Amino acid sequence: MTEPAVTKLSVNLNAIAQLRNRRDLPWPSVTGLGAQALIAGAHGLTVHPRPDERHIRRSDLPEIRALIDDEFPQAEFNIEGYPTEAFLQLVEANQPDQATLVPDDPAQATSDHGWDFRRNRELLKPVVARLKKQGIRVSLFADADGDRDALAAAAETGTDRVEFYTGPYGGCYDDPKAAAVELENLQRSAEAAEGLGLGINAGHDLTVANLPALKQHMPALLEVSIGHGLTADALQYGMTETVKRFLSACGHDI
Fold it and tell me: What is the largest CA-CA distance in the chain?
């Protein structure tokens, strides 16, 4: 039986940045709330810069990098995005601890599917090698469909981890039977990934309510990246209390 992993919490700052961008004003502060999250115990910060800068701006990245370097050196910085040359140069300039590569079209509202690893294996191989040469851990966004052959193709890219897309599970918040089916898919996928030597991350529509069951079905889960649900809760409970609630849902003693 898999020994349960310590699941780290990375706070995605995109929703905070999107709220800021509604006005030509510096608040809410992306770095200020990021600092609050880290003080409260979050293990890292995640951003997903898009070409139109509708939430995180390119100018935010050096500020987040400096925040972590100067005040929270134990924390990790995770940058997500589609591996265009411009994105890769942005990653290399800001040296995150982890780069999470997603197959998004630039016009997508949010990530909503994983890579087709068989089709994109040769595209991803040199990108993964390039980032790892910089000392950056690489994670690839993956569908939780239990397809071991697809995950084997992911492993052949040289990636360190896969991040399972949990949107279908999160979308079952009012349907326990459907949620149980999605949890079984996630469990099978995680077991296959672990058997291939891949580290396991997860993200999308995760909440305080659905995290404990996810942890139970994915005991090797290393990291969750959470933005929308966490930001929504922060409006009600405040950032500090919200981070503590999510850490508790991840299995941490608070």
Answer: 53
